[in-house]
Specification:
six-stranded mixed sheet, transcription, GNAT_dom, single chain, about 800 residues, two-stranded parallel ribbon, 10 strands, Bromodomain, alpha+beta
Length: about 800
């Protein structure tokens, strides 16, 4: 027999497994306080289970409904002489009398426990365990002040209470059951280790595995901040989604560590990328800060691992956590060093009993100690030494994969070749060495700022004033700091005007924080209905300029707006700011229709209106790194190609003999370099003639009966995951717009876009699909028309 309780998505209804409740609000790791609390409850259960059977019946009678004749509605026996609170240590225990009447219904204790007469000792001990869990949760409910957490505790309390009454097993029904996301965090970290470090020697690879174990252990013992605290720290994040995960974490991973009558799951095994992304930034900062604070107390054998290797490991993992194109989060993740795919297997499993570090709260989180009482389930210790010890679980079974299934990569260069080249670019030992302290002369403007952010030196927070929520002292202090920075750096702007906009609830500010103080920011106002955002102020304090902070600020702002589906910036720039905005992709060519912004934005005398259109496919904060990597890959590919051409041909002597020119293909060795003769198609040099020809061809293609799948851009709702597979989408509507704007200055540009439509279709759809067949038929029609127009050789 089992008892279940319904759980609504997003509500703090109850789960069925988890980890230990210890300060979910602060954001940190569980310390010795949690371990001691769990041990204390286990000791109480052991003591109670060793009691005589009458004592056990008395304990269970308190939670058992009366079975006397006449339909008594009493739901628990109450002693006529309850023990004092707190119980006295010198008091002799009373003998249990089954004939003692209930203070509530006057029926005897025996009438309340008749259903337990033939129950085995094992079942009775199980019920006693639930009883102590109920009593513990009762204490949690009354001492917890956070509303969301209190509601979860209360729901669990009712569920376990009902299980005792009906002698059932606690099972909680929810819209989803674990695991909640695939691949799990544990699997993603396994994939990360294989993806980045499979080429390392075994000794160095083992170091990476140890780092991964330590990281997974930290997540399993990490205490999530409450939804209300997260709203104060990151008001723009997905509050509803975080609340769902917080509820699941409490139910399945946090409470059951103390209340072992509920089954328990590891956080890293039932949650995936979404939860990891919501905690990674704060978690990384606190882990590194605590490591710096405790460096003198670390064991010598762990000091290098934690202080040198761990920060670099976290930085590399962070790129994969927040990258939209990272392959480690694909369920079809496969890697192979020689071009073939090998089944992925688990290389790491988080130690469930390790003693983790406790780390301080994040800068914007509310300190629970300053907010009244906290439930016993949320108390933590102040610090613990780091440890990689603990019992290891058995590695999980290999995940089966279809050998014919391959990770889809769009591009002209085979992925095997890219991996091989990347292995030659990345120094295998660089992962284990200290971070570069000197930047090269060719570094991107924001590279220094990016490194400082990864080290936790600087932080970025979107903040704003609110008339509805209780003021947060730290946020108000930051807003005052921003007002001071803007006033100092923009002396021609009235101070009262700056103050009014910075503290206006309709405006937000992306603030740059260094050493706990504001050193810069961008104040903006979003107009979602109009599809743009106005940038009002942008400044970095004078003594922190020329460090790439301004570029990194703008890149963070771009990514923030892409998440909120706003893809246009508008701003009035004065003569001193035009250069900066041009470097950030702004121009005087405004893409937003005038009717959209007229009357919405503030007009400044003597300033220039500039706009910037965002591309949602670009990860702006990592854009310069991606470009740098692409350049390195191309350089290495060229070097490899050159190395393959081993034969050295003698120089050309024909010119000395009076020959004026020769065909390119007659040059010895030219074809071995990969050169191919250009098609003999006619290139129309007259722009109007080219436009007319291409327009005619495009009309023929669009009017064909097989063109219907390609008329407009693919909608996300119709093809889920399309834009994760297809990185460069194209359609006939976009081609028509490009043709109208005279984008196609050569036939090759036009043909490349058309070919992209067919290639994308065959890449995403299976060969037996109708779309695949339409692409093949329409491709033949297109090339027929191209040949008829004389643009390629027949």
């Amino acid at each position: 027999m089992s008892e279940s309780a319904g759980v609504q998505q997003g509500s703090p209804a109850i789960g069925a497994a988890g980890s230990a409740p210890a300060a979910p609000g602060a954001g940190g790791t569980e310390g010795s306080g949690a371990t001691v609390g769990s041990a204390r409850i286990a000791a109480k259960k052991a003591q109670l289970r060793s009691s005589p059977r009458p004592k056990k019946l008395e304990k269970l009678g308190v939670y058992s409904s009366c079975k006397a004749e006449g339909g008594c509605k009493c739901n628990g026996w109450k002693s006529q002489n309850p023990p004092p609170t707190p119980p006295r240590t010198d008091q002799q225990p009373n003998t249990v009398n089954l004939l003692e009447p209930c203070r509530s219904c006057s029926h005897t204790l025996g009438d309340h426990v008749t259903h337990l007469e033939n129950v085995s000792e094992e079942e009775m001990n199980r019920l006693l365990g639930i009883v102590l869990d109920v009593e513990y949760l009762y204490t949690c409910v009354h001492k917890e002040e956070d509303a969301d957490t209190k509601q979860v505790y209360f729901s669990l309390f009712k569920l376990l209470r009902k299980c005792i009454l009906q002698m059932g097993k606690p099972v909680v029904e929810a819209q989803e059951s674990p695991p909640f996301e695939k691949p799990s965090i544990e699997q993603g970290v396994n994939n990360f280790v294989q993806y980045k470090f499979s080429h390392l020697p075994s000794k160095e690879r083992q170091t990476i595995v140890e780092l991964a174990k330590m990281f997974l252990n930290q997540i399993n013992y990490w205490q999530l901040e409450t939804p209300s605290q997260r709203r104060q720290r990151a008001p723009a994040d997905d509050a509803a989604g975080y609340k769902v995960n917080y509820t699941r974490w409490l139910c399945y991973c946090n409470v059951p560590q103390f209340c072992d009558s509920l089954p328990r799951y590891e956080t890293t095994q039932i949650f995936g990328r979404t939860l990891l992304g919501s905690v990674f930034t704060v978690m990384r900062k606190q882990l590194l800060e605590q490591a710096r604070q405790e460096k003198d107390t670390l064991p010598p054998e762990k000091r290098t691992l934690i202080l040198t290797h761990f920060p670099k490991f976290l930085s590399m993992l962070e790129e994969e956590v927040y990258s939209h194109s990272s392959p480690i989060w694909s369920e079809d993740f496969l890697v192979g060093s020689t071009g073939g795919q090998i089944p992925i297997h688990t290389v790491i499993s988080a130690p469930p009993v390790a003693r983790p570090l406790y780390y301080s709260t994040s800068p914007v989180s509310v300190d629970p100690s300053s907010c009244g009482s906290v439930s016993p389930a949320r108390k933590t210790a102040s610090a613990l030494e780091p440890s990689l010890g603990g019992q290891k679980r058995k590695p999980s079974e290999p995940i089966p994969h279809d050998e014919t299934k391959k990770l889809r990569i769009v591009g002209d260069i085979p992925m095997e070749l890219i991996n091989e080249v990347m292995a030659t670019i990345t120094d295998p030992t660089s992962m284990l060495g200290p971070e570069t302290s000197l930047l090269s002369a060719h570094s991107a403007r924001d590279e220094a700022a990016r490194l400082e952010e990864r080290r936790g030196v600087i932080e970025f927070h979107v903040i704003g004033n609110s008339l509805n929520q209780k003021p947060n002292k730290r946020i108000l202090m930051w807003l005052v700091g921003l007002q001071n920075v803007f006033s100092h750096q923009l002396p021609r702007m009235p101070k009262e005007y700056i103050t009014r906009l910075v503290f206006d609830p309709k405006h937000k500010t992306l603030s740059l924080i260094k050493d706990g103080r504001v050193i810069g920011g961008i104040c903006f106002r979003m107009f979602p209905s109009q599809g743009f955002t106005e940038i009002v102020f942008c400044a970095v304090t004078s003594n922190e300029q020329v460090k790439g902070y301004g570029t990194h600020l703008m890149n963070h702002l771009k990514e923030y707006h892409i998440k909120h589906d706003i893809l246009n910036f508008l701003t009035y720039a004065d003569e001193y700011a035009i250069g900066y905005f041009k470097k950030q992709g702004f121009s005087k060519d405004i893409k937003v229709p005038k009717a959209k912004y007229l009357g919405y934005i503030k007009d400044y005398e003597g300033a220039t209106l500039m706009g910037c259109e965002l591309n949602p496919s670009i990860p702006y904060t990592e854009f310069s790194v991606i470009i740098k990597k692409q350049k390195e890959i191309i350089k290495k590919l060229i070097e490899r190609k050159q190395a393959q051409i081993r034969k050295v041909y003698p120089g050309l002597s024909c010119f000395k003999e009076g020959v004026r020119q020769i065909p390119i293909e007659s040059i010895p060795g030219i074809r071995e370099t990969g050169w191919k003769p250009v098609g003999k198609g006619k290139e129309l040099k007259d722009p109007d003639q080219l436009y007319s020809t291409l327009k005619t061809i495009l009309q023929h293609v669009k009017s064909h009966q097989n063109a219907w799948p390609f008329m407009e851009p693919v909608k996300k709702t119709e093809a889920p995951g399309y834009y994760q597979v297809i990185r460069f989408p194209m359609d006939l509507k976009t081609m028509s717009e490009r043709l109208k704007s005279r984008y196609y200055t050569t036939r090759k540009l036009f043909m490349a876009d058309m070919q992209r439509i067919f290639t994308n279709c065959r890449e995403y759809n299976p060969p037996e699909s109708q779309y695949y067949k339409c692409a093949n038929l329409l491709e033949k029609v297109f090339y027929t028309k191209i040949k008829e127009a004389g643009l390629i050789e027949k």
